[in-house]
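Support request, please re-run this one:
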Amino acid sequence: MTEQIIFYLLALAITVFSILAVTSKLIVRSATYLLFVLLATAGLYMLLGYHFLFAVQISVYAGGIMVLFIMAIFLTHKPGTSVRTKRGWRIKSSALLSLAGIVLCGYIIITNGIRTYQFVERDGFTMQEIGSAMLGSQKGQYLLSFEMMSILLLACIVGAILIARKTKTTDHDTNETDQ
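Re-run finished. Output below.
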């Protein structure tokens, strides 16, 4: 009974903070709401007894990735300014595409959800099997995708720094011409 109450509270927190992260006009608040979503997700992992995933969620996502997001926000934007909301056809088309995505995902889950139970072993996996699957380079292993994700994050950091530099130099150039 207590676990169900905790689950529903965490699910409510994830839902509310996800909506707030998307609808907030201040970008730093959106990042803070995303941090709360990641922490509540870690709470779900703890509730399920996945202590390793709980620790990874807290250290990697709630710690490292959020620091990266906040740093990118401070480098690229003025954090106190509001983000302008889009109006008109963009909101309608975004809502329509979101609804189409939800319907497509629901269809895929309903049609393929039953098949996944055939492939899941009841005993589970050991840490050695998970580690070799994550860092292996053969078929069905994830080293390449892990490395590609790290290259993508590095490219995002470099892009954020380049955007921040261009913005600062153009602000400096316009101040000199004004004087």
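The mean pLDDT is 77. Residues 143-178 form the longest helix (36 residues).
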